[in-house]
């Protein structure tokens, strides 16, 4: 079972779009899981080259000066930066 949304809903999401060679990613609203803000959780929308849009829950963790976000996409736990680099 795939969690997909319509392309028209993806285009209406008011967020910055991160574009890679194969996927484009928009981040939805993120929430703090602790007082310091070092753990976050929020919606991640991924559009592939066939214009299929997937909705995933992203988990972020502050590591020094960097806040990577991990998602479970097609059976693997991957950072969204790595997903943007895929060709």
In short:
It is built from two helices and seven strands; from the N terminus they run βαββββββα. It is mainly beta.
Give a description of the structure:
The chain is mainly β and 87 residues long. The chain has one domain (4-85). The chain is 13% helix and 47% strand. It contains 2 helices and 7 strands; from the N terminus they run E-H-E-E-E-E-E-E-H. Strands 1, 2, 3, 4, 5, 6 and 7 form a 7-stranded antiparallel β-sheet that branches. A hairpin with a 6-residue loop joins strand 3 and strand 4 (39-47). The protein is globular, with a radius of gyration of 13 Å. The two termini are 24 Å apart. The model has no long low-confidence stretch (mean pLDDT 87).
